[in-house]
Amino acid sequence: MRQFLVCAGKFIGEIIDIFYPPFSRYFSRQFFRYGVSGAANVGFDWLLYFIVYNYILQKQFVPLGFVTISPHIAALFVTFPITLFTGFLLQKYVTFTASDLRGREQLIRYIAVVGVNLLINYFGLKLLVELLHFYATPSKMVVTVICTIFSYFSQKTFTFKVKKSI
Question: Which parts of the chain are beta strand (E)?
Fold first, then answer.
């Protein structure tokens, strides 16, 4: 399985690199790959969120017996584990391939950073949807931009860092 993921990551990276030359003056290859693979995962997240919120949950509150979850938060909790998994795989095998940290350590660190992003998502959606009465899907998009900025710097310097050789 690992070999398949490495090969798939190289293949995806090579496809992304086809579009890199016009941007090479402005971005490093790693940053470009982060942007493209991250944008693909975000697009997947938005599409999945839209489908879950509108068609699976049908914008209905979800009663769990002891608590009732609003539809925009329930959609977040349904889509979160899926995009956590796809995001980690893209970052590990496409973007930050030079990291010398063990995969397990990367995953733990990735989950920690994503956990912070989940909190940003939760409180951001609560603020925008429930307090400011914005629509759920555009609110999710705004919160995603904030999370993306935080995430890039965290993933580069913490999750997938490369030990400097002397």
Answer: 62-63, 68-69
Q: Which of 21, 22, 83, 76 is nearest to 49 (CA)?
A: 76
Which tens digit of pLDDT belongs to each residue from 96-149? 998 888 989 999 999 999 899 889 989 999 999 999 999 999 998 999 889 888
pLDDT, tens only, 22-60: 999 998 898 899 999 999 998 999 999 999 999 999 999
CA 107 to chain CA centroid, Å, is 13
Distance CA 36, CA 53 (A): 25
Six-digit token string for 156: 């580069």
Phi and psi (nearest 5°) for 65? Answer: 95, -65
**Whether 162 contacts 99, CB under 8 Å:** yes
Question: What residue spans define the domains of the chain?
Answer: 2-159
| Ramachandran angles phi, psi of 69, nearest 5° | -105, 135
Q: Please name every residue paired with 12 in a beta bridge, in sequence order, or none if there are none.
A: none
d(CA 76, CA 125): 9
Secondary structure (3-state) at 59: coil
Distance CA 81, CA 53 (A): 15
